[in-house]
Specification:
globular, mainly alpha
Length: 388
């Protein structure tokens, strides 16, 4: 079963990611920042999808944008809706498991899961940097639901490990299959073997983290006569220990199909749906792109999401996606409109229900706080009455 990360009650200041919790609280509260993001968002879209094609002479790309195959656009929208369900299933699946999470799991029902995951997707898009915005908001929601800091951090690591393990595995499998000619399409080394090798390195690093003891802080011997150095060492050990616990938790879901089916299925389903959106968008603007290239180009292009962007990933992720498919020899007249449609449907369209979900989540968190206050008041009143 997925393991529980230990908490050190004697050193509460060593509990990790307090800063993440605070970041989640502030995430969408700064209206000025949101307006700045939206303004930069619009300007970059105009620059990339309107001005750039004109500058480089891709008038066909602009013409295609106004004349898609609407049936395939409908298919892309269906995949987008399915991705919401898969993402929520991944989230619920990571919360499931372990009797210590029963109360939190009961509080975060399907309705709460939807609000959290939709708000997290909007935050991930608006404040992109490998999903940092969504991580902060989800961690904040887990803490407000009553999960302890170390356990919330552990579950967030497990969530990310499951999600990106599927991502890395796809880079390896489809990169090798394309390079070996099993799948049809161009197979440049830079788009197949290189990303596959990087993915293998990531798996190795994750495996090394899994070897770190979850109670690493306790194993650090107190430095005699140097309490300050001892405290610093324990703080430095907290992060790796928490990550290690999260990695082992994710591996636990994979090793136990019965308890991990929802989490693993949600991770696989989410990426399948995102690739499905892109596949449908290519068909909406002419098609002709081999499925192996659609999959590999998607995952290679998504690497650009690691770069911080002040405006919903516009510029970095768009350039990464476009560059990936140009590398695989797909005509620019198809790539530009397909990637643009994919970005609208898969990333920007969910911002609207995501922001709505965020404000619904704020109200739900306020209700949780009221329930806790009433419970605390009832407990105190009962103790007082018994004392009398």
């Amino acid at each position: 079963m997925p393991e529980r990360a230990p908490v050190d009650p004697e050193h509460p200041e060593l509990e990790p990611t307090v800063e993440i919790e605070q970041a989640g609280t502030r995430l969408l509260g700064d209206r000025r920042r949101v307006l700045t993001v939206l303004a930069a968002f619009v300007l970059l879209i105009v620059g990339i999808y309107v001005l750039l094609p004109k500058v480089v002479g891709l008038h066909d790309a602009l013409d295609r944008l106004s004349d898609p195959n609407w049936a395939w656009i409908a298919v892309a929208l269906a995949f987008c809706l399915a991705s919401f369900l898969a993402y929520a299933a991944l989230f619920r699946g990571v919360l499931r498991g372990g009797d210590h999470d029963v109360d939190v799991y009961r509080r975060i029902d399907l309705s709460a899961s939807y609000k959290i995951t939709m708000a997290a997707r909007a935050a991930t898009t608006l404040f992109s940097a490998a999903g940092a915005g969504g991580i902060a908001l989800t961690y904040w929601a887990l803490r407000k639901a009553g999960m302890e800091r170390r356990q919330a951090a552990c579950r967030m690591v497990a969530f990310l490990v499951l999600l990106y393990a599927v991502y890395a595995a796809a880079l390896i499998v489809f990169g090798v299959l394309l390079r070996e000619g099993v799948l049809h399409g161009d197979n440049p080394v830079g788009g197949t073997i290189v990303p596959a090798a990087v993915a293998v390195v990531c798996f190795v690093v994750a495996g090394l983290f899994a070897l770190i003891p979850s109670d690493l802080e306790r194993r650090i011997v107190t430095l005699q006569g140097h309490p300050h150095l001892s405290r610093i060492a324990r703080r430095l050990a907290t992060g790796p220990a928490t990550v290690a616990s999260g990695v082992r938790t994710a591996l636990g879901y994979i090793r136990h199909p019965r308890s991990g089916a929802e989490a693993v299925g949600g991770a696989v389903g989410y990426w399948l749906c995102m690739v499905g959106i892109l596949w449908a968008c290519f068909h909406a603007f002419g098609g002709g792109v081999p499925m192996g290239i659609v999959i590999q180009g998607f995952f290679v292009g998504m690497v650009a999401n690691l770069a911080p962007s002040p405006a919903a990933g516009v510029g970095t992720l768009d350039a990464g996606m476009i560059g990936a498919f140009l590398l695989f020899g797909i005509p620019s007249s198809i790539v530009f409109p397909a990637v643009f449609a994919f970005r609208i449907i898969g990333f920007w369209l969910p911002i609207v229900p995501g922001v709505i979900g965020y404000f619904q989540l704020r109200r739900l968190v306020a209700e949780w706080a009221e329930d806790e206050s009433r419970s605390a008041y009832t407990s105190v009143s009962k103790v007082t009455a018994e004392a009398k």
